[in-house]
Amino acid sequence: MAGHAMNKAIRTFARPLLMLPMLALLAGCNMGGGGKASSQDATQGDLAGARIGAPFTLTNQDGAATRWDDFKGQYRLVYFGYTYCPDICPVDLQRIMQGFAQFEQARPALAAKVQPMLISVDPGRDTPAVLKTYVAAFHPRLIGLTGAPEQIAKVARDFAVIYNKEESAGASDYLVSHSRTPYLFGPDGQPIALVPVDDPGTPDVDEGAPDKVRAFLEKWVK
Q: Whole-angstrom Cα distance, residue 149 to residue 162?
């Protein structure tokens, strides 16, 4: 789904009393899929009031239990993806974390209030050891989270993320299609807005450039 259409759908359905079970179509990591952040007013993000997110306990890249509530009082920058993703996930993470690094350099005190995290949708392969090497390549503050398949399935439902393991007959490898929804949550754990990522449907516009991620963080992190 193109980024504009996806965000329009989110603005339409991400409201109180709605659970957003189908906020985006599956987008295989080798197929693209948009997700640029839409325009927001000065006081509320486009996910204000949406029922996205819930307490969880997963395992981080060091093998330790990590709870959603461990980050109370912090902003949470949440990306769902997986380490074997051939193109979209690593590009998104690289640019998001480059933007975060720019923000960190310019506004270190504010950046300290933000916890970036990758939640794997491929728990079968994304062990803590695999995640540890992967997240370290993007930024030292980025944490990776994994868990049992049923744990990941529940977290995905709670965070309005759709994913599906795609296997081919006779092939030992596989891809995981998933909705492309990088979120920013506030210190109270409530969703604020979608983090900017590039929309392949607009090749002449770079919606996910690091400077745009930095501007996004400067707008919402207080």
A: 14
Give this prediction's pTM. Answer: 0.83
Model confidence pLDDT, tens digit, residues 129-173 = 999 999 999 999 999 999 999 999 999 999 999 999 998 877 779
CA-to-CA distance for 185 and 192, rounded, in angstroms?
A: 5
Handedness of CA 114, 155, 90, 136 (dihedral sign): positive
The encoded tokens of residue 203 equal 């090749």
What's the average model confidence in pLDDT over 187-195? 97
**8 A C-beta contact, residue 192 and residue 208:** no
- Is the CB of residue 173 less than 8 Å from the CB of residue 35? no
Strand partners, 176: 165
Selection from 161, 184, 56 nearest residue 115 by Cα: 184
Rounded Cα gap, residues 89 and 29, in angstroms: 7
Q: According to the model, what pLDDT value does residue 42 have?
A: 61
Nearest CA-CA partner of 119 in 175, 86, 160: 160
